[in-house]
Write a structure and sequence with these properties.
mainly alpha; 341 residues; 52% helix; binds tryptophan; 12 helices; two-stranded parallel sheet
């Protein structure tokens, strides 16, 4: 099924509220591109709090706070509720309702092949992970299919989940009629992949062992300066972009280039022969110059939680309208009796 011709293509993406703050990698890899896409697409952006339960361990007060921070940071970063639909996943019950139908159309083998799940099992053992971790990609498929999204902006690590989503949509349509839209992955640029400052072979990640390599968007300026200055580089001194042999320096150049809009080649030329110290000093300044106003705006949203909740309520109201319509078609198609009004 498709929507009316002339509509802008619809995108849906989600981000988990599983940390006290988003980090620079989240911003450069995803959020920044969400902000750009709202200009050209009918964008739905979702704080996926249901997904935040899948590790089986959460603290209710912490989850509530993290969901608010996530929404506040998206708004502070430029996600504009007048240009897109920003909402919290648990505010739209249709996600879980569709998820059940999809769960019943998913094979055990198919779900067992998801690499994120397999990695967890390998790391912690099947006894120690929950069923929610296993069914997580099916809920993700529901997030996407309930809005009949055309495209899904995600990082490369999510490609397999989008494949599953496509398979489920096709299977559904084949069996029950043309109800769902089969979405395309919209893989975010590889240049958006920011590495850990302490271990530039790994992605900057909230789950890294040391926080010294992760710049949180809510970090204090002094902490950021320290993290940038202590970033792992190499024993050479040349400021040169070469991700293979100089991953640390290349990562710093990528961050610098994104935040200042200066091409990497221009930065290489500007710091030629100056060593890493000068690069790090200026980069620290650029990062602080970027995060400070962002932090202020985030705290502003958090201080005014009434306004934040209003924005999220309006987003959820719009999302629900779209989601409820899809769910009605799905329920009808699979053979549920439509309830009397
Ligand atoms: N699984 C995604 C991640 O961990 C988050 C997510 C949940 C998502 N639902 C989504 C992403 C729907 C895109 C579309 O990054």
């Amino acid at each position: 099924m498709s929507r009316m011709a002339g509509d802008r293509p619809r995108v849906l993406s989600g981000i988990q509220p599983t940390a006290d703050s988003f980090h620079l990698g989240n911003y450069i890899g995803a959020v920044r591109q969400w902000v750009a896409l709202q200009e050209t697409h009918d964008a739905f952006y979702c704080v996926v709090d249901l997904h935040a339960l899948t590790n089986g361990e959460w603290d209710p007060a912490e989850l509530r706070q993290r969901s608010r921070v996530a929404a506040a940071q998206l708004l502070a970063a430029g996600v504009d509720p007048h240009r897109c639909t920003l909402f919290v996943q648990s505010h739209v019950p249709e996600h879980t309702q569709l998820s059940w139908v999809l769960t019943c159309l998913t094979g055990m083998g198919e779900a067992s092949r998801m690499t994120q799940y397999k990695d967890r099992v390998a790391r912690y053992g099947a006894e120690r992970i929950g069923v929610g971790m296993f069914t997580y990609p099916i809920l993700q498929a529901a997030d996407i299919l309930i809005y009949r999204a055309d495209q899904v902006p995600v990082g490369e690590d999510q490609r397999q989940h989008i494949e599953l989503t496509r398979d489920l949509a096709q299977r559904f349509n084949h069996r029950f009629g043309d109800v769902l839209v089969v979405p395309e992955p919209y893989i975010l640029k590889a240049t958006g992949k920011i590495l850990d400052l302490q271990d530039p072979t790994a992605k900057m990640s909230k789950s890294s062992e040391s926080q010294a390599g992760v710049v949180d968007l809510l970090d204090e300026p002094a902490a950021i300066t320290k993290k940038v200055k202590r970033a792992v580089t190499d024993t050479d001194t040349a400021v040169r972009y070469d991700p293979e042999t100089k991953p640390g320096v290349s990562n710093l150049l990528t961050i610098f280039s994104v935040l200042t809009d200066r091409p990497v080649a221009e930065l290489e030329a500007a710091y030629d022969g100056m060593g890493y110290g000068a690069l790090k000093t200026d980069l620290a300044e650029a990062v602080v110059g970027f995060t400070s106003p962002l932090r202020e705006r985030t705290l502003g949203w958090l201080d005014d939680s009434g306004r934040l909740d209003d924005v999220l309520a309006a987003g959820a109201a719009h999302a629900r309208k779209v989601a409820a319509e899809t769910l009605t078609h799905v329920y009808d198609a699979v053979g549920f009796i439509q309830p009397r009004e």
